[in-house]
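Convert to structure. Protein one:
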Amino acid sequence: MQKEKVVFLFILMFFFNGCDLFNARTPERPEQPRSNYEVAVSPEILLQNFTNSLSEKNVQNYLNCFSDSSFSGKEFQFIPSAGSSSLYPVLLEGWSKKNEEQYFNNLISHIAKDLPITFTKNNENSSFSGDNSIVYTASYFLVVPHNDEISKNFEGELQFNLIRDSRQVWTIYLWRDIKSTQNASWSELKGFYSPN
């Protein structure tokens, strides 16, 4: 009887050693690359998060840049560039954060995974507004590597109204797009990729 117990324990030890049950396995690579997102405790971090979310094509980080009325008391609003709404009437239908999500998801589905959206800004300026918000303006140049029948280059000026919400996080509650050249504006990109 004692001999059978020893043999059983020996077989059991051999089984556990043979199947690598207690050995560490090689970690799997994540499907999504690591994000550069940081909690936007300053306007500078917010603007960097916005740029990174475009480059990384990260929908959640992109949406986190926009105001949540439950924390800020302000609904996100987008005001399109002049003339773009005649091409894309959806831009005048009360563009919201949900519209941003739909447009951005649709946009990135038309871009190869390994190709980033490139967002460059110049002539940056910011000033405090009377309601403790910040008005940030810049000229922008956007390169979108899609394969659709619309420009890949978008250019204009943007105005972001930024507010610090009840969590002490800075977000964009108003985005005004301004067409300043003959190139297509960001509004036209949004209109083209809007699912409506």
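Protein two, convert as well:
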Amino acid sequence: MPEAPSTREIDLRPYIRDIPDYPRPGILFRDITPLLADGPAFAQACSRLTGLFREERVGAVASIESRGFTFGAVIASQLGVGVVPVRKAGRLPSEVFSASYSLEYGEAVLEMHRDAFAPGTRVLVVDDLLATGGTALATQELIERLGGETVGFGFVIELLALAGRERLREHRVEALLAL
């Protein structure tokens, strides 16, 4: 018989690998693949993020490409709502809204289907990492253009030195790890 999952809180930091100079010199990349590879740690990370927003009457979860997809799909399932993919430009097959944003190491464009959810839907934004906040703000812009309401932002990791939380200060921001 399988063992029941532990109720003790797992320290998630050991599951985040630091990769210096990736994707370019001067960037310290926070690799979450060890977290994804460990079933109990991954399950707990998703459950903890879900628990933080369970009382928010979330109607949809917007998950940001690509690592946000993994967490967003699980959290949406746990909340009993649909998941909305937020993708890089040119990767969605139907009519989209687009929003440009700055990364800590470049510029990019995000897109969301124009019919991703009904106006008035309360949307939780999920991604693996909060850095400068540009990706999250672009996602919020897309949600608002569709007539939705951003109820908050959930992240596995927040990079404190990049002050992304300050750019999102009008909304609830939750992160499991602050590095």
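The beta strands are 17-20, 28-31, 60-64, 82-88, 96-103, 106-113, 122-130, 149-158, 173-178. The helical segments are 33-37, 39-53, 67-79, 134-145, 164-167.
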